Amino acid sequence: MTVMWRLQIYMKDICRIVNGLLKTALGPPPGSTTSLSPAQDTTVRHESVKCLVIIIKSLGTWMDQQLKVERSNPPKFSNDENLTENMNLSEDANFSDCELPSEANSEFTDAATLEQHRAYKLEIQKGIALFNTKPSKGIEFLISTKRVGSSPEEVAYFLKTIAGLNKSMMGDYFGEREEFPMKVMHAYVDSFNFDKMGFGEAIRSLLRGFRLPGEAEKIDRIMEKFAERYCKCNPSSFSSADTAYVLAYSVLVLNMDAHYIMVKNKMTKADFIQNNRGINDGKDLPEDYLGTLYDDIVNNEIKMSAESSALQSKQGNSLNALLGLDGIFNLVTKQTEEKPLGPNEYLIRHIQEQFKDKSLKPEDIYYALADPTILRFMVEVCWGPMLAAFSVTLGQTDDKEATTQCLQGFRYAVHVTASIGMQTQRDAFVTTVAKFTYLHCAADMKQKNVDAVKAIISIAIEDGNYLQEAWEHILTCLSRFEQLQLLGEGALSESSSLNTPNSETELKSSNYPSLKKKEALQNPTVVAVIRGGSYDSTSRVYSSGLVTPEQMNNFISNLHLLDQIGNFELNHIFAHSQRLNNEAIVPFVKALCKVSMLELQSPTDPRVFSLTKMVEVAHYNMNRIRLVWSRIWSVLSEFLIAVGLSENLSVAIFVMDMLRQITMKFLEREELANYNFQSEFLRPFVVVIEKSTSTEIRELIVRCISQMVSGRFSNIKSGWKSVFMVFTAAAADERKSTVLMAFEAMEKIVREYFSYITETETLTFTHCVRCLITFANNRFNSDVSLNAIAFVRFCAVKLADGGLAWNEKSEGDSLNTPTVKDNAFGGQKCIDKDDHTHFWFPLLSGLSRLTSDPRPPIRRCAMEVLFNILKDHGHLFPQPFWASVFESAIFPLFSFTCNIEEPEKDDNHYSPEPGSQLPDESLWESETNAVAVECLSDLFVHFFDLVRPQLRQVVSILVRFIRSPAQGPSSAGTAALIRSAAELRGKLSAEEWLDIFLCLEEAAKSSLTGLTELLKSMNRIEVPDFAYQNDVVDDFEDENLQTVAYIVSRMKSHIAVQLLIMQVVADLCKMHVQSLSLDTFTVIREIFLSTANRSSELNSETSLLLKIEKTCSVLEMSEPPLIHFENDCYQNYLNFLHDLLMTNPSMSQENNIEAELVTVCEEVLQIYLDCAGFGRKAIREQGGSTLSSGSVKEEELAARTPLVLSVMRILGSLERGCFRRYISQLFPSLVDLVRSEHSSWEVQEVLSNILESCIGPLIME
């Protein structure tokens, strides 16, 4: 309580002093009297301001001293430590032969004297001693004396295995940016096998061999390589190496936070998880994974080599600074809000400890404090009065000394408030100074306002690390200052060049009207600047009024004051940005983007000052570590995208060119595997070209990317993804010029730079193929499409040859000893080179889609290339992958076959559209059909052992072709199915034969169903009984005529399809009849039986036949071949049964084929006899009306004669015993045949032979 009371007393005293000085500085209130003369009053007021300045200056000086002392405390690796290590080297260096490289053992195995052995050890010790002092010198010495090989792998092996090396020096050496040390570091990290190793354990194992260096850039290079190596060994661990890179920093920060005694507020598991949100390519890592990693680090400290508890006690609060992580910590933890150092429990306890056991009176002792945080209490009390005193004085007086004191006070106040994190107070002081610059109303500017501009520049340079959001005010002042400079120099207002209708990338220059000329008084930009506005106005309000010559002269004289500030001071702020710490640079860039956007959004006066400075800032800060650059670029890229999509074409072109410059500079830096830095840098081009509608912008982006590829092709790495996305967008452009320009660049990439495309990331191959497929789809130039398809085939060859595997140079999976060149450390290749089967999907499916291109040459080329690729490289595909190939590439290609079958119509209505029989005929002409079916058949036969699970679907496709009403597809499908079955006859199993016939059965049933529906529709149409053809017009409506004509046409198509299916089934039966399974036999018999029965039923429907006959006569159409249909169905049925009876006796006996054959023969004879008028049906209907005239009856008998002859020949071929068993069944029909009249003498001849050879012997017995 005593401590707090005393602290409050001090705060009250400070408050009284500052308020008293404030009152004095402001002078007596209005209406009061004073005994001082005006001169004395002014002097007193100025002295009061001077006192306030001294107070804030003293606070800042004390704060700087304390911070300087605090920053000088981190432990250093002194020369004494190095000397101690060197002194102990004699003991450590007495290593045995087993500790020496194998070359040493081989060299001294046959050594003649011990002296040679001793000399060798002395040289090694000398090299180690040099390394511990200057690592590069030590390595050069060891290489020159041939004690270490000259390759990076051999040096890395030496550093990893030899004893006595200073581990801190090793870390410094590994972090160097020179080429050879960097290669050694890469080889050293690559020697570790992190396969299936936890992330924390991987870092722990790496850091056992050396200490991390003290510079952030060196740490960054090591962590970057570690992340790449870990992702190579564990490809499925993270989405990219960027995740491992950020997580590595998080782990280092957590390790220090958890295990160093001076860190009071420890990070919790929830904090650690929160800090790593969204680092996995925008997604979160599993909380269980992060929780386990947190427990591992907290419970098991990552101890670097030569680390001890004594070292920990030295480190204190400045460990982050020691390791170069002070500015990176907040970037890793992604702190969105600044945590001020305000009064907290730690501060109170710290103060209490200083007052503990002090019994003297307060006025008798001074307490020395060393914690700058105590300043917060004092500043919180006095900042308001100081701001008021400085502001009022600066506004009321033009006295040089007084204004200088006020501006100094502002500078000190900004320094103190910014350094201790008082954001509100800092912004208040900065804003006030910015307002006093009067750059927003230059007509009223005075010398003190110019001094305020100088103060702003000084604040920016001296306290830039702490300004944060206040940067916006400073950069706004610089923007306005630059605009006034342009006016003062008579330069062109940038708006006039940016608004030029046909401006090019470079801004045009012309002379701005001189301010002294009359026309300047009417220029809206000049008028707006002279009239001025408020400080907070983002754009000037243009009025129709003019300025007077007096106002113009006054304005010109004021502009001369700005000559005191040159371009050097202005540009120095942007050049100085490279010295901002890692936390400060991001707010600086954000503020610069915001100010630039305000400049560009001006409706009549857009400017690019801040935009051009952005290029300079990017250039100055290009060497920052990638983690910081990622944060900077996330801000810049979003800004550049927004501006690149601007409606102002000149601004957009300028930004794209600026982006090209930045990207070209960044692409000079090499990228390791699994990272996405280059891709992120090129992403703005992708977004802009995908969203922009401007032809100029899209073509400019294509030119920019083409230039980058030509100049930086070896460093693009992950950026190839963005390159191909840009060209993909250009390939889909609606303008021919853009497409041709992009394809020219794409052609060069594939021909010359293909080996670089998948150097570090094989996924870019997919983007390359998609880009080529998009070019093939373009409608402007068939040559481009054909070349793109050829390049796709080239990509397939590369893929099949293993051309996508990462270069061996980039793997570095093992280090070689001087004598043993393989796997010195037991390391193994951690990258299992996949067969890359999944990369075939976009390639094959893209070609499949191209087969539906409306241009015949393109679709034929795509189809040929697709099947050639599959045939040439299909042996590389495993069976499961073949299933995916058929599903994604081959079956979609034949999806059109669903449309070439007969169209399904509603039962009650049929639209008479004869041209609709083949909807896709324009796309899939007969030649394409033949090629497609032939290619499918050849491919299936060629890889049958791998693709036999696809048999059912392949046969279904061929059957759909067979069912096509068009001659071309049906013939192609029939030939392909017969040929495939013939070539695979010996390989097909019983189940596979069954699948083939099931597909045919399904097609036959579908066709019969369609035919039945057609007949039902025919029955619903009323056909009048007319005697003359002319009655048709009176009795039939046009719609009915069209419907009947359509139905008849469709009946013919169905019958043709059904007969073709029967023929295919018959041909396949002949191949397989000797080895038919029972299930297959059942399916085939069902096909023949159902078709024969249905055909017989059709010919027995007298009324329907009569209706068809009448309508066809009226319409002058040929009738559907119903009798021919019936004859062929029975003929195929009889042939099947007879062949089975002759060639497969066992199955015939089991299924009673003989009886079925005789029954079918009897049915055929009865149909014939009914037609001749002697059948049982004819006798029952005797006396009734006849269907046809005598001539028609004779025609029908003639049509049925071949089938009857075939039946009688089959009966005559039966064995005598078989014929005897069925004579009672057949004899009545034979007798009726004798009585009947026949249209052909062959019937009588064959019948006579049956009576003579079959019945005669039975009678004679």
UniProtKB/TrEMBL annotation:
Its main location: cytoplasm. It is found in: Cytoplasm, Cytosol; Membrane. SMART domains: Sec7. It holds the Pfam family BIG2_C. It is a peripheral membrane protein. One of its GO terms (cellular component) is trans-Golgi network. Residues 493-514 are annotated as: Disordered. The keyword Transmembrane helix does not apply. Keywords: Cytoplasm. Residues 499-513 have a biased composition (Polar residues). Gene3D superfamilies: 1.10.220.20, Arf Nucleotide-binding Site Opener,domain 2, Leucine-rich Repeat Variant. Residues 113-300 form the SEC7 domain. GO terms for molecular function: guanyl-nucleotide exchange factor activity. GO terms for biological process: regulation of ARF protein signal transduction. PANTHER family: BREFELDIN A-INHIBITED GUANINE NUCLEOTIDE-EXCHANGE PROTEIN 1, GUANYL-NUCLEOTIDE EXCHANGE FACTOR. This is Brefeldin A-inhibited guanine nucleotide-exchange protein 1 isoform X2. It comes from Sesamum indicum (Oriental sesame).
